[in-house]
Amino acid sequence: MNTAITEKGLTDKEMIAQAEAALGELAKVREAVGKVIFGQESVVEQTMIAILASGHALLVGVPGLAKTKLVETLGTVLGLNASRIQFTPDLMPSDILGSEVLEQDETGKRSFRFIAGPVFTQLLMADEINRASPRTQSALLQAMQERHVTVGGLRYDLPHPFHVLATQNPLEQEGTYPLPEAQLDRFLLQVNVDYPELDAERRILLETTGAHDAEAESVLDSSRLIAVQSLIRHMPVPESVVDAILSLVRAARPGHGNEHTDKHVAWGPGPRAGQSLMLCSRARALYDGRLAPSIDDVHALAEPVLQHRMALTFAARAEGMSVSDVIRTLVREQG
User: In the record, what terms sit under GO molecular function (predicted)?
Assistant: First the structure.
C-alpha cells in the first residue's frame, strides 16, 4: 500500500497551483546562484534544502571553497538581510546577541536601551563556529533553536525567516572548541564542501580574476520564501517514503536489530533526525521540480542529515571507519 500522507489546510488544486509557481521561482534561484557559484552543485542544493526546510546548516570544508561567497549570494538571490560573524576565542555572547546600555535623557532620567547584535538578521554566517568558547557557541545555538534571545529579562524575537549557515574547518583543530553532539543536533544538515571539479575550477580561474566579477540578482523576497517554506510542509509524502525514513533512522541506532550498526555505532540519531529527513526530502523534491518526495530523496539526504547525529565506537574508529561508511552501508541494505 502506497498512500500519500498530507498536511491539512490546502486542497489538491491549491497545492498544485502553488507548487507550480514555486517550481518556476526555484528554477530561477538555481540559475541565479549558478552565475556566481561555479560547480559545487551538491553544496548549493543541500544548503538551499536547509533553508527551504526552515532550518540551519553546518558547512564543513577547508578555507577558500566559496562558503562565504555562497552565503552572500543566497542572501541576495533570496532577498534576505545577511550578516557575518567571524568567531574567535575572545568573542562574548553579548557580541552576538546584543547588550543593554545605560542612557540619560535631557531631564536626567536614566534608562537601559537594548542594542541588537548581529544575530538580528535573516541569514547569518557563523564563520568558524568551533573557534568560539562553548559559552558563546551555546548563546548562538540557543537563539537558533528558540528564534529569540533574552537580555536583561526581556525577550527579543529574531527576524522571520531566520537561518544560520555555520562553517567549520576540518583540518585545523588547534585552539578550537568542538561542538557537543547535543548542539550539533540543532543543525538540520551537515554539508561537506569538497574541492571543485576540474572544469568548475577552470571556470573559476577565468571568470573571477578579470576586471569584473559576476553579481547575484534578487529572485525572491523574504515573504515569498516564507510562503514556499509553508508549502513544503503541506506537500504529500508517500507512505513508502515515511517507512523508508523510519527504517533508516532506526537501523542507525545500536540495539535495534542491525548487526552492522550494533558493531560499529556507539550511539545513533534521535527522532529529530527523522523529522529532518521528512522535511528535507520534501524540500529536495520541490527544488528538483517534483511535487512529492521519493525514496531516492531519502537516500540522497541520509548522509548530510545523519552524519553529525551519530558516533562510532572506539574499535570502529581504530579500524579507520567513518560515520559516512556506516550510513552508506545502511542505505545499500535498504536498497
Answer: ATP binding; ATP hydrolysis activity
